[in-house]
Amino acid sequence: MDVNEYKEMQAAQFYNRTMRPVYVEYARQFDGHFLTLASSVCLPVSDFHNLIREFHKRLDRSLLGRSYYRKAWDERTQGIMFLEQITSHIHGHALVNFAGSRSEAELQNICHSVWREVCPGGEVTVQRQGEKSPARYATKEFENWEHDDLKQVILFKDFVGK
After folding, report:
1. Other C-beta atoms lying within 10 Å of the C-beta of residue 100
2. Going by C-beta distance under 8 Å and a sequence separation of 6 or more, which residues neighbour residue 131?
3. Which of 18, 82, 110, 129 is the most buried (most CB within 10 A)?
């Protein structure tokens, strides 16, 4: 590693150490569920972003009905997702407040059904959050100096109106 690469690594580590607490604090507002979505194949980050966008759209349609897109932001599914292992087994951990009021079993079934439509062979896990927020766990890749939060963080609000 030459001097310039070392300086770049140091700057990235400082940035990630500074930004991780900001993301953790922001994520705490989404205290409903912890959602993990994984692809069964290696995909480019942009393709995984598109899968998440499609998942969000279909999920809200399932939860809110055909006119889901007319609902105000605060009535839609809200959350933040952190992508991991973007060069191998890409997956995302999200802290989510689901739209509407469904039982745990219904949310499990809907999320499984929608994700399997969007990403055949993919895996999905939905868990109600406990007293301790999973935000620190979800942001663990910030420890990696090559982490790029501009590519690896997805705000669900960015999908509303698209």
Report:
1. 17
2. none
3. 82
